[in-house]
Specification:
37% strand; 2 helices; 18% helix; 2 domains; Jelly Rolls; eleven-stranded antiparallel β-sheet; 461 residues
Length: 461
């Protein structure tokens, strides 16, 4: 239709100019004036034609940009869905250490990031945490969350956090780093009444969005200063249970940002990932002097020779903070086969990817583990059906604290994971003055949607 209008305009113009020129020839006195008028009209009409063509091109380009922008939004949303489905919580960042920085989808591609990720693995005892970026984190001091470990840092040097104390767990290169703030000034009562939440800082948190305190979700509309706080927070969000939260309680948010790109268009979608259920079992599953919440369930074959000579309790001799200790007597060959079992605070659904981590150590007198003595630990998952499966058994016999690293596992289909069991078999060598001792601690179980379904934090009584 626009092309037809341009042609009609050109025809009318040609006819009009022809009439003017014919008039000039009939009236010689006006020939010069008519020629100038014709040229002027030609220039105006040519300009109008150029404008018509430009408008048509601009309109087409705008339509393409609008289409690509909408596509980029859908691709970005697809990126968030992709990492939540295919990456283990909470390590959602796409980076060179986890298989590439982008993924093709439809007509474009997406890249998903977390506030930061580790550019180097972190070992127990490390005093520096290297990340890709510290932009947006509280400075000079603050807290970060990696896997299920909250780490306080005293300062930032470039892209390095300097922890206030040695790191207490291992963390793989590429794992996500999230900001942690704390409840400040005013404790929160045990109710579901909407409120503002005063905190130390709100750096790198997104609102509106979900923040987590303990096992309770808060949906907060915004942030404000004087005092620093999250505003208009709905408590008990998504059916979570109310709880009292003291000043100093950690406040989490697992923020994921997906950038979708199609052609020249780019859109970014940020979401706060909601954790689901499962408050941590806190402060000492193996506290000094007691086995705490890990009961002896008399696992078969439950062999305890010479009960009075078996130390089946906790001991500070390994690391000074109350580890589970299994120790035979000195001077006689003795055996202990038994287990301890902890029921999870919240059952984990079927077919869920989880991550297990623990620390362990052995020590012998006059007899090496695995040669003249038996030193074995085993971790089993116990399900609602009564079924069990072995997730880990030690293949080494370290005489210093050793972390298993993050052990990936997918729970059984059709049944809930309800508890975790630690089995042990300690036997001294059949020589004079022989003794075998094993220690275990730092057990953590991480599942999608929960920072710590099961997590032991050492406590000195």
């Amino acid at each position: 239709m626009r092309n037809k209008s341009i042609i009609d305009c050109r025809l009318l113009t040609a006819d009009f100019i022809s009439k003017i020129l014919n008039s000039d020839f009939r009236n010689p006195k006006s020939r010069g004036v008519s020629l100038i008028a014709a040229i002027f009209i030609i220039v105006i009409l040519a300009f109008m034609g150029v404008m018509f063509v430009s408008l048509i091109g601009t309109s087409s380009l705008t339509s393409v940009n609008d289409l690509q922008s909408a596509q980029a939004l859908y691709v970005a949303e697809g990126g968030n869905e992709f990492v939540l489905k295919n990456r283990a919580f909470p390590n959602y960042s796409m980076n060179p250490n986890t298989g590439g920085t982008s993924q093709n989808l439809g007509a474009g591609s997406f890249s998903v990031t977390t506030p930061a990720y580790l550019t180097g693995a972190v070992a127990i005892g490390d005093t520096a945490i290297n990340v890709n970026s510290t932009n947006g984190f509280a400075s000079p001091s603050g807290r970060v969350l990696i896997d299920s470990e909250v780490i306080a840092y005293t300062n930032i040097a470039g892209n390095t956090f300097n922890p206030a104390g040695p790191v207490t767990a291992t963390h793989l290169i590429g794992n996500a780093v999230y900001p942690v703030t704390r409840v400040a000034n005013v404790a929160l009562a045990n109710n579901c009444t909407a409120t503002d939440v005063q905190v130390d800082y709100v750096n790198n948190f997104i609102t509106p969005g979900i923040v987590t305190i303990g096992s309770e979700y808060f949906y907060c509309a915004g942030t404000a200063a004087g005092p620093t706080r999250f505003t208009s927070c709905s408590r008990c969000y998504k059916g979570s249970s109310a709880s009292a939260h003291l000043v100093g309680a950690n406040v989490f948010q697992y923020m994921v940002a997906s950038a979708g790109t199609v052609g020249n268009a780019s859109r970014t979608v940020k979401i706060a990932v909601r954790s689901s259920g499962g408050e941590a079992i806190q402060n000492g599953l193996f506290p000094n002097g007691s086995l705490g919440s890990w009961p002896d369930i008399n696992c078969p074959p439950n062999k305890q020779e010479g009960v009075t000579s078996i130390d089946m309790g906790t001991s500070a001799s390994a690391d000074g903070t109350g580890s589970l200790s299994i120790k035979t007597d000195v001077g006689r060959k003795k055996t202990m086969d038994d287990c301890r079992q902890q029921i999870l605070t919240t059952a984990i659904p079927p077919s869920t990817p989880v991550t297990l981590n623990l620390n362990y150590q052995f020590s012998t007198i006059n007899g090496a583990c695995g040669v003249a003595a038996t030193c074995a630990f085993t971790i089993d998952f116990i399900y609602s059906s009564g079924a069990s499966e072995t997730v880990w058994t030690n293949a080494a016999f370290p005489n210093i604290w050793t972390a298993t690293g993050n052990i990936p596992w997918v729970t059984m289909a059709g049944v809930n994971l309800t508890s975790i069991r630690v089995s042990y078999s300690i036997e001294s060598a059949n020589v004079n003055d022989a003794q075998a001792t094993g220690w275990i601690d730092g057990i953590s179980l991480i599942a999608p949607g929960s920072a710590a379904l099961l997590n032991w934090q050492e406590v000195v009584n």
